[in-house]
Amino acid sequence: xxxxxxxxxxxxxxxxxxxxxxxxxxxxxxxxxxxxxxxxxxxxxxxxxxxxxxxxxxxxxxxxxxxxxxxxxxxxxxxxxxxx
Length: 84
Hints:
With 84 residues, this protein is of the alpha+beta class. Helices cover 39% and strands 12% of the residues. Strands 1-2 form a two-stranded antiparallel sheet. A hairpin with a 5-residue loop joins strand 1 and strand 2. The protein starts with 17 loop residues before the first helix and ends with a helix.
């Protein structure tokens, strides 16, 4: 693949060229992650929404679960699975 270039806007936005979007399997609304390699290059990859879900949910938890709440949830799950 030839070197592809894109211009950064005043808001720090950049358009990922179509050829790269196809290669990465990304489209409008998808999220991408950036990481730096030891030699200073940047890797761009599509964010796995299933993995990022844990991060989004972490901000929704107002307080840690107690041992009693965890045990109760486990018992409820066992009862629900036993009836199926």
